[in-house]
Write a structure and sequence with these properties.
With 503 residues, the protein is an alpha/beta fold. The protein folds into two domains: 10-258, 3-Layer(aba) Sandwich (Rossmann fold); 273-466, 2-Layer Sandwich (Nucleotidyltransferase, domain 5), CATH 3.30.420.240. The protein has 13 helices and 16 strands. It has helices at 10-20, 27-42, 57-71, 84-100, 158-161, 164-175, 240-250, 252-258, 354-368, 386-395, 411-424, 438-445, 455-466; strands at residues 46-51, 77-81, 119-120, 133-137, 147-153, 181-191, 219-223, 277-279, 283-288, 291-296, 299-309, 321-329, 334-342, 373-377, 401-405, 428-431. Strands 8, 9, 10, 11, 12, 13, 14, 15 and 16 form a nine-stranded mixed β-sheet that branches. Strands 3-4-2-5-6-1-7 form a seven-stranded mixed β-sheet, covered by helices on one side. A hairpin with a 2-residue loop joins strand 9 (283-288) and strand 10. The longest helix is centred in the N-terminal third of the chain and has 17 residues, at 84-100.
Length: 503
């Protein structure tokens, strides 16, 4: 069978199938079909199709695969999905289309062994090692396979994206597509975002060390349930009443993710990093008239807390070793000015042991932030570090105290107590560099009782709980008829002593 040089348009192919099935074709499906066909015909080979749940996108992509095989029976199509069952579902759908569509039934082979449930080979002129269509789960080994078209159908689901480790593994497995796809082959992603750190995000996530989005350069079609005017894109299937019911039943985050295609976590997090107030100011240390001052954005800082939650800081595994500092200004607001994730260098372990490497990094942090003291959590590894840290601070010429602190309360409770009130009140500020650290990811994904990473949260919560609550100094009432309250705090105001006395 030679490639068809004058094929039926894909939208006509789609309409013919729906008529054969006794169904109508909504405008939404026509729009998707024309975008896929136009992209293929002009040579766009890196595509992302995002459409709301139950929009029928996988069904249309299955018809698209049938249309491609009708045009060129020599094509090899690989379907990747979050699991093998989901990938096989699309392959079975394409098989049924080929069997029943009036334009493709001649593609079905005579041999039954060429017509299996998870893979099949159509009648084709060339003898090729790979089948016409093959289903694989994202975790399967695809080494040695070759494909002219790779369909990534819902490769991102909660089971492949709800932790940083799973997201990294997903990206590594998707990177293998480059070694499977033939030159000039088509790579098509189909799905909905399931996390703020989605592979479908159109902007890089600095706190996840992204400089560009994962699918940068891919041509995109995004079809959320509601258009720019707030109207349903498929009113026959999703009228306003049904949309409101879905919104109420699933909650705002899941609705935004699955129906509006916004990359947010599908479950509500306890700590919302959007409540942090960002600032760009650097520390300004001054000495004048025998007095030292530390300013941030022109505001004088009156206290600071530094907390080190230590571990060995292995680059590849285990808990992170995190040090953080929080300043409090005269206005009573908290400023998270530094969060540093410490790691030892295994290559230097023969010359400088791991603990000394970490202590040297702490000394650098103390120097950079003018810290008068460091509170060291002495649970576990921390019990052996105070003496070593004091020695390294002394060698570095830093007159900073080391305060030993053992934590006995549940970590979840400490984090809740530290963050809930200050975030709700909008009193927690964070320096711009904090937003490029894993701390923001920890905030976004932390939930009590789970095993999500929380090392940075633990360190910052220690700082917040160590800082006293300060009331801002308010000016006296301007109205003359209003009597200002006396300052109730001890040690405030002047005192006149009688110095005229005889000895």
């Amino acid at each position: 069978m030679k490639p068809d040089n004058s094929p039926v348009n894909f939208d006509a192919f789609l309409i013919a199938w729906n008529q054969h099935q006794g169904m109508k074709t909504p405008e939404l499906h026509i729009e998707i079909a024309r975008w896929l066909a136009e992209s293929w015909q002009v040579g766009d080979r890196e595509l992302v199709l995002l459409a709301f749940r139950n929009a029928g996108k996988s069904t249309i992509v299955g018809l698209f695969c049938s249309w491609l095989l009708m045009r060129n029976a020599n094509l090899r199509i690989l379907v990747l999905a979050a699991d093998f069952a989901l990938a096989s579902k699309m392959v079975r759908n394409v098989k049924r289309i080929i069997e029943r569509h009036p334009l493709t039934h001649n593609l079905k082979p005579d041999r039954a062994d060429q017509w299996a449930s998870a893979q099949f080979t159509v009648n084709r002129p060339r003898e090729l090692r790979d089948p016409s269509m093959l289903a694989k789960g994202i975790g399967a080994n695809i080494t040695g396979s070759r494909a002219d078209v790779v369909i990534c159908d819902d490769v991102e689901v909660p089971n492949t994206s709800d932790t940083p480790g799973k997201r990294q593994d997903l990206r590594q497995r998707l990177d293998e597509i480059d070694y499977v796809l033939t030159p000039g082959g088509l790579q098509l992603y189909v799905g909905t975002p399931h996390t703020y750190y989605s592979i479908y995000a159109d902007k890089p996530r600095a706190d996840a060390d992204e400089e560009v989005p994962y699918l940068a350069g891919f041509k995109r079609l995004e079809l959320p349930l509601l258009d720019g005017g707030g109207n349903s894109r498929w009113p026959e299937h999703f009228p306003a009443a049904k949309i409101n019911a879905i919104r109420l039943r699933t909650g705002p985050n899941k609705f935004a993710s699955q129906m509006l295609l916004q990359p947010v976590n599908i479950t509500d997090g306890r700590l919302d990093p959007e409540r942090l107030k960002s600032y760009d100011d650097d520390l300004d240390y001054r000495e004048a008239n025998g007095e030292a001052k530390l300013l941030l954005g022109g505001k004088r800082m009156v206290s600071v807390s530094c907390w080190w939650d230590p571990s060995f800081g292995s680059p590849d595994k285990g808990d992170a070793s995190v040090i953080a500092c929080v300043f409090t200004g005269e206005d009573g607001d908290y400023r998270l000015h530094g969060v540093r994730y410490l790691e030892h260098d295994p290559a230097l372990s023969g010359e400088v042991d791991e603990a000394t490497q970490l202590c040297n990094q702490v000394c650098s942090f103390v120097r950079d932030h003018f810290l008068p003291s460091v509170t060291l959590e002495t649970n576990g590894l921390g019990r052996f570090l105070p003496g070593l840290l004091r020695r390294e601070l002394n060698i570095a010429g830093l007159p900073s105290a080391v305060i030993e602190k053992a934590s006995s309360r549940s970590k979840d409770l400490r984090i809740i107590d530290a963050f809930d009130a200050v975030l709700a009140a909008g009193r927690l500020h964070a320096h711009r560099q904090v937003f490029s650290t894993p701390f923001i990811t920890e905030m976004r994904e932390w939930r009590p009782g789970t095993k999500a990473r929380d090392d940075g949260l633990d360190a910052v919560s220690g700082c917040l709980l160590s800082e006293p609550v300060r009331l801002p100094r308010l000016p006296a009432p301007a109205a003359k008829d209003v009597k200002a309250r006396a300052n109730w705090r001890p040690g405030q105001g002047g005192f006149k002593a009688d110095a005229e006395f005889k000895i």
